[in-house]
């Protein structure tokens, strides 16, 4: 018999049955740019438990919250699910509303920020086997800081 997993979605609570919210990361981020605040992670599909090579996660950022400013080798795709926010991907700032999609290429510095008064939530796919996020280099930090479009993402 094929194993079927079903996690019912509760639209009022904006959560999935049997899926526990946890902190975005175990480490609060002491390296420059790696700090984050107001962010939770919900793993919806976990490799290899689901027999797949990828994971699907739901992240939710509280108003005023943001993710770490990081880069890594693996690609991921983000689909905004609720609220609004901004994403820094490389040297580009993207405004995101529900159902917008943004792809993050390998080694592109990126950060997600809630710019609204409501939770900003998004689905994110990543490789199940992936590298550890890295802080941006000094040169990348300075380039982002010197560009008026990206400077608000550097803290």
What is the helix fraction of residues, given as a range?
A: under 10%
CA-based shape: globular
CATH class placement: Mainly Beta
Question: How does CATH name the architecture?
Answer: Sandwich
Please compute the radius of gyration using only Cα atoms: 16 Å
Task: State the CATH superfamily name.
Answer: Jelly Rolls
Q: Which strand order does the major sheet show?
A: 3-4-5-12-7-10
List low-pLDDT spans.
none
- Kindly identify the CATH topology: Jelly Rolls
Q: How many structural domains are formed by the residues?
A: 1
Distance between the termini: 51 Å
Biggest sheet descriptor: 6 strands, antiparallel
Number of helices: 1
Strand content: 35-45%
* Overall average residue pLDDT: 91
How many strand segments? 13
Characteristics of this structure?
155 residues; mainly beta; Jelly Rolls; six-stranded antiparallel beta sheet; three-stranded antiparallel beta sheet
Can you describe what's shown?
This protein has one domain: Jelly Rolls, CATH 2.60.120. It is built from one helix and 13 strands; from the N terminus they run βββββββββββββα. The strands form four sheets. A six-stranded antiparallel sheet has the order 3-4-5-12-7-10, with no helix packed on it. A hairpin with a 2-residue loop joins strand 8 and strand 9. The longest helix is centred in the last third of the chain and has 9 residues. The chain is globular and about 55 Å long. The model has no long low-confidence stretch (mean pLDDT 91).
